[in-house]
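Supplementary Text 2. Reproducibility record for the structural model of the 137-residue chain.

All settings were left at their defaults, and a single model was retained for analysis rather than an ensemble. We include the record here because the model underlies the residue-level annotations in Supplementary Table 4.
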Amino acid sequence: MEKELFGILQAIKGKTGIDIAVVSENGIIEANTYGKYVEFPVLEFSKITQQPQVDENLKKTFFGFTFNNVNFYGGIDGVSQTEKNYAVLITSFIEIMLGFSISSTASKVSSPLTTIEAVSRSLSLMFKIHAGVSHSN
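Retained model, structure tokens:
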């Protein structure tokens, strides 16, 4: 799953410029686009899945998601409402893409890379709409 997750994070970073790190609930870094170590505080998973949590000291917004009955935490830079909104979108995107990646591998219906590219385009459009930028395609 680490390879799929890293590909998803790279797709998000490529379309938005947002660096993301994801750790499993036991603190192991699963994927990271920062290119360096990223500090994660101890987080209460039940709270972080309800809404993104900010850490003013680290200047990061954290979010949580579950995949295959394992809890994961993600983090992005910034603590404003914009980063909280991005965290919600990123959480949904990661969950959708991990589901597509597993189902595509199991059914061999479509290429996971093609799926990632398609959903990445959709994510890019969502961020443009969210930022108030018009899309002309």
